[in-house]
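Hey,
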Amino acid sequence: MQGQAQQQAYDRGITIFSPDGRLYQVEYAREAVKRGTASIGVRTDDGVVLAVDKRVPSPLLEDSSVEKIHKADDHIGIASAGHVADARQLIDFARRQAQVNQLRYGEPVGVETLTKNVTDHIQQYTQVGGARPFGVALIVGGIDNGEPRLFETDPSGTPYEWKALAVGADRSDLQDYLEENYDENADLDGGIALALDALASVNDGSLLPTEVGLATVDAESESFEQFDYDRIEEYLEENDLLADESEADESGE
């Protein structure tokens, strides 16, 4: 009984390490991220691409209400995977940090600086009693002085910089696809094609524009742009990834 009590202590307590040096609540938060639909980030010389799988669980749900891509600042976009409510809290925090930096220093916040501010905030919730870790991973993409940057935040509060990455469901398969097909010399359209191809690879080879979110941060203009359904449909058609809606309806019945 005593052994079970000790196990429950470090299994449930966020501030208690297990005998092998693990924080189980942080690992459970990572499992929550895996249950979220996938998000992908791709860095190119011309900018950063963010693409997300935003499959709608019911035909009665307004697909526009499923928000997985957010604008943090004029030059920074964020995609999420995991608990949506947790993501919104972190994105609101990131937006406040961006505004504070602008007011305090009179210049846009750096992508790495903003990411580390967010991960410092996340980390606090791994060592404070009475709280739980954030069950979400973020992909932070933006432009620093003309240079595209792409970062991941982890529920442990650790930032990672990537050339291309996937978070959420099917991460292993998506990451394998990105590693095999990533081209360091690709332009922004090439980055969009890679991200959409990767999403399609785990969705029967095709996608519907209403079930995909797509945004870019252009290196030249240093501006965030989120695409509407018509533009997403154009990119899907160009890359032969557009699903037939009647077939998609039949498969969902």
